[in-house]
Amino acid sequence: MWSLSCSQLVLLLLLLRGAENTSAQKVCGQPKVHSPRIVGGQKAEEGEWPWQVSIRENRLHVCGGSLISSHWVVTAAHCFEGPLNPLRYRIHLGEYELPKPARTMVSSAVSQIIVHPYYAGDGLSADIALVRLEEPVNISRTILPVCLPNASDPDPFPVGMSCWVTGWGNLYPDASFLTRTLQELEVPIIDVDECDKMYHNDSTADTDTEIVPTGYRLIYNDMICAGYAEGKKDSCQGDSGGPLACKLNDTWFLAGVVSFGLSCSLPNRPGVYTRVTSYMDWIQHAMAKNTPSSGGIHLSSASPALLLVFFLFLGSVHLKEL
After folding, report:
1. How many CB atoms lie within 10 A of CB 322?
2. Is 92 an annotated catalytic residue?
């Protein structure tokens, strides 16, 4: 029979927890559902974008978001107005059709909302926020985190790269209702300086009355643009906070967070997203600072293999008397 001190047992628990977290980090960005895609907005397949979440305020969809771990969702800061009251919000994971909750959909309470301290308003920098789920969510076919980019790589998503934006936003600018089913759209990455120039060009659309003044910069390096000079394809109201995901080496990474645009799908007005690589240090620091580090592993979220090792070990251990 083995003999183990209390301090050694605590160390074992922490090691098991670390192994569980490492295993969870590897399971990101690789959905089980794959669909042949075409350029242009279309309905997504159920489970095709398993990190996509619906943020609900008083039961109504207000924004999208991206699951980045079993406990955390990243979204846009402008999704939250006024005093931050987590009780007003819920996160729907594994959602597909808004009026018809999927059988596998999970609704989670919110324990914490962290808005970037430098965020100062719509159309400005630092439009990013973190939401902590009250309980860790179980990974499944329709619920899976998207991978975060490497903080040491400043530009993993080059100009011209094709990425995908998803959400339940309006299908056209003046729509009075959200789309029922999750939509997907392929968009190319646009150079930041070129994007800023486009926003200073007159649009050929009669409905566009918002022209950026000469000498005023609108697009900064902590933003990323994606879309088409001719317009017609874009994210829109209701997509805010959702993911701009790019595929690298058969794995999907979160490149951007839907932030703003002038109207939707107009010429010379591509979608503007918060550049995730610019805020990786903040994301990692905020998650580490606000994630409890004591208490051993969470048995409810541990893998069956680790639980088996844990209980077999306990069955053969005799604690020393203090």
Report:
1. 5
2. no
